Every structure is written in structure tokens, then in C-alpha cells.
Amino acid sequence: MADTVQNYVELHDINKNYGDFQASHQINFGIEKGKLVALLGPSGSGKTTILRMIAGLETPDSGEIKIDGQVVNHIPANKRGIGFVFQSYALFRYMTVYDNIAMGLQIQKVPKQQIKERVTELLDLVSLKGLENRYPNQLSGGQRQRVAFARAIAPNPQLLLLDEPFAAIDAKVRQELRSWLKEMIGKLGITSIFVTHDQDEAMEVADEIILTNRGRIEQIGSPSEIYTYPKTAFTASFFGQNAQLEGYQAFHTFGDVPGADKALIRPEFVKVYKLDEKQQYPESASIGTVEQISFRGDRTELQINVNGLLITAKRNLGESPIAVGEQVKVFLYRIFVLKGEEVILLENEAVNSNYFNI
Amino acid sequence: MGRKNDGVLKWTLIAICAIFLFIMLILPLIYIVATALREGFGAYAAALSDEYARKAVGLTIKATLWAVGLNTVFGICAAWCITKFNFKGKKIISTLIDLPLTVSPIIAGLIFVLTFGRQSFLYDYLKAAGISIIFAVPGVILATIFVTFPYISREIIPVLNAQGTDEEEAAALMGAKTFTIFRKVTFPHIKWALLYGVVLCTARAMGEFGAVSVLSGHLRGKTNTMPLYIELLYQGYDFTGAFAVSSLLVIMAVIVLALRSILEYKGKKESEQDR
Questions:
Q1: pLDDT in tens, A105-120
Q2: Beta-carbon separation of B173 and A79 below 8 A
Q3: What CATH architecture does domain A241-347 belong to?
């Protein structure tokens, strides 16, 4: 074929409606073999529908789904060679860990001895050795997820689909499991797609992010690409911890975008100085008043009122402390300017001019 | 202060319940046993070993077994289709299932008389096929089934609803056949609720009077169930007989009630483990 890269999973012009609700609209994307991809979006954006259509749990109204070069629209879910991890894990409550993992192989009528070997191997892989006779309700959330993972990959699927795999776990364990899952999938080299609404999770775990919104795809790209160079207004506002501003012209030395609606500022775009601190680009700073300070462990977060516009900034613990009500100098490195569906990245012109002055 | 008031309220409520239960339940039960034994154990035993009495017991058990058996199958099917699938008319079906709980049993009996009796267009076909329903055992069984069919599905539906379809979906994705899914995944969930429903259905089936009364024709030794037989004895001023058979029915009911409590306890214990 002319394509240099053969995609393992491909969706062509997929549409799906539930009554009047458009769950998927003209979905097109391809996923390379061995990649770990995140379907990211707010709730109701249609990400789970896409996953379920790939799995064969839902049927698209129109369009083509290809797995390994073969159109699978009419192939039943259990013949598509996929493993599926449910959001709730859907472990069989009345079966032991062993039986849960073995179930898929038993249905395929694999000889008993082979099942035993495979289950033992998997228990080892997910570090659940010794727990094979427990029931799901006797396991912790993290252990349940690992059972669900082992169960999904037991019959050696070529494609692993995970629906919100971390949603049911408390924050601390979630962090561990993210790295665990990434490592595990990397080790197995299995093509994987997972659904999430959590941008941090997607950026940390995925090789590639597919961002969905209202049944459409907004942008596809690597985490750094999609975060740093958003192509649509939605993408820009979805990532990061944004403050939305009407009238960004209140800040100094930004170029003018005719017809712009508003601007987005991420905390990392902002640098805050105390009035007596030295500053690199003094001519382009604005004066603001600190309205609120919240302690976030490794940093403090400041809400600063600049001419009536409220922006969020971060300050490291090493820097000298700032009090509520204090006047500070605020400098913006860059902003996203939104214009309809478009987004324009504006750099502070002071940065470039000074650069030339050195 | 609030505590003290709570204490008064608590004991008042307990007293009301106790008095109510005593008058409504305990007293009549004592009376039944006392009357049954009024003429001594000999008369009691004689009343129970009477041929018609034994036949009535037999028919009651037979009708109950039929009703429970068929309603178990129907109940599982109905509960499954209502909870696992979406289709038009689902609301209507689930409402219709409750109908026997709201319709008077007498009316239920009359409906069957109209449907299968002489004036029905079905009558000729049934007669040609040699089947008699009205004033015969099949009619008794039919009436019992009708009045008891909501019990089992009503018990299972909430359990199936709470469980959702994830586990079934997971099994289906592995390629499990429908029956395997039912046996290995669905059934363990509904086991206790199903047994509980069976017990309730049994209790109701044994005691059914109204609908059965219309359809049976009160043929002594043929179509008389225990409740009908008791009424017959009572109308004939045979109090010892009537209350002796009643006491038997009460004993059967108490056994069922005990079973119910055990099942409820076991089911609860298991569902607590789930959490």
C-alpha cells in the first residue's frame, strides 16, 4: 500500500446516533500497532461510544471499523480478538480470582493444563500470586483492577480496550497504577486504547491523545503536541488550568488579533514578582492585587486581580512569600487568543525585543 | 429531653404493634389449635386422616408445585427480559405482571370461567381435545398460577437491576453462550432472591381461596383444595374438622415462614460480603 505506516485500528467516517443525540459524528482516526492511545474528553463527548463500537458492543450507524486491515463491522465482539477492561471492572463476583482469569480460556475450550499454566503466568505478571482463591470482594481496588487486566489479556488479544480504567480507584493508588499499566502494556507490546476524562492521566500514560468533544474529534496528537499547540478553541481550553479573560489588551505588549473573543491564560504562562523584586521585562509588566492564596504542597497558587481580570499564577516554595492583599507585578509570557473555533498563540513581544538587545 | 421523649415514643409504638399482632394473629392461632383439639387428639387425628381431607392436602400440594414450577420459569424469563433488554411495551409488561396483586381473585376466577367455560369459543376445541378446565383439576392449577405469578419476578427484578449488565457483557465478550452466561454469571446473583420468591409464591399458592373457589366447583375429593375443604367443613358445622385441617395449613405456613427467615438471613449475609 501507499501508506508508509500500517494502522492496526482504523475508523472511517463513523456516525452513531441515540435517538436525537449525536454520539459520534464523522469519526476518523488510525492507531499504529503497539501504541497506547487515550480517548480523552469531557463526559458525554462520545469517547466511550467510540470504544464500545471498536469492541463490538455498539454498532455504528454508518462508517467502517477496521482491525488489522479487516473490516469488523459485522464480526461479533468475541471474534474481534480484543480484551476489554470495564470501568467497573465487571469481575464475576461469584468466582474466584483464578476462575475470573480462566473464564475466557475455558470458553475457548483450552485444555485444563494449559489454562493452569497461563493463569499462573498471569498471576505472576500482575503480582497477585497467592490470591487466586480470593473472591473479588476480598480484594482492594488496585488488586481488582489488576485482576480485570489479567482477565482481559488472558486469551492473548491483539487489542486491549480499557474504559476509564482508573476511575474507581482512590487518588493515591491511581498514581501507582498509571505507571504500572503503562509499563505493563509497554512490556506486552499490545495495542491499547483507553478512555479517560482526566487530562493528567491521558498526558502521563498515553503515547497519543485523541481529544473528543460533542461526538467529534477535536485534535489528535502526542501529549506535548496537543498541550503546547492546541489547534481548536476547545482543545486550548480543555488542557491546563485556564483562566479566561475578556480583553487581554489590558496586559502589555501583546500583538492585536482583530475579532478575537477572549484569551486563555495558563498558570505556567504567568510570572509573578514582588514589587521590590528584579524583573526581566519591566516595561511589559502589569500591577495586580493578590486576592487569594492556596497552599498546594509543592507550590502556592495565587489568584491575582489585574485591572478587574482574575488570573491564576503559581509560585514556588523557594521564592519569598506573598501575602493576600499585596500588590505584585505580573508578567505574561504568552496567551492563547480565541477567535470562534480558532486559537492563536501570542508570545509577549517584549521577550523577542529584549532577546535582540542582549 | 429528646431522649426521654424518644423512649416514650418507642415503647408506645412497640406496645401498639404487640397488641395489634396479639389480637390479629396470636389469638386466632391459639383459637384454631384449641378448637381443633377440643374433642381430644383422637378426633383431631381422625379429622386429618379422613379420605377427603387427605385428598384436599394432596391437591393443594399438587397445585402449589405446578404453580411454583411454572411461575419460576416464567418469573425468570420475565425478569430477565425486563431488566436486560430495551424494547417497546416493556412498561406494559412490567405493569401487567403486577395485575394479579391488584385484581380481586374472584374476578380472576370469573375471567377463566369466561375464557374456558361453555360460552367461550375455545370450549369446543378443548372438549374435542378431551381437556376439561372448569370444575376440574387443571382449572384449580390455572387459578393458582394466575394469583401467584407476580411473586417470583417481583423478587428478582430489583436484584437484576442493581447488578447491571456489565458482568454479562464481559462474559459475552469472551464468547460465552447465553445459557453459560445465565448459569455462571446471572444465576449466582439471583439465587437468594429467587428462592425467596419461590417461598412467597408457595405460601400464597397454598392459601389461595377466591379464584380457586370459582373454578373448582367444590367437588369433594376431586377439586377441593385445603382452603375450600376447610370452608366446606365449617359450613357443615364440623368445627373440629375445619380447625384441624386449618391447623395443618397453619403448620405448613409456619414452615414456609421459617424458610423465608433463613433465606432472608443468608441472602443478607452474602450481600453484606459483597460490599
A1: 999 999 999 999 999 9
A2: no
A3: Beta Barrel (2.40)
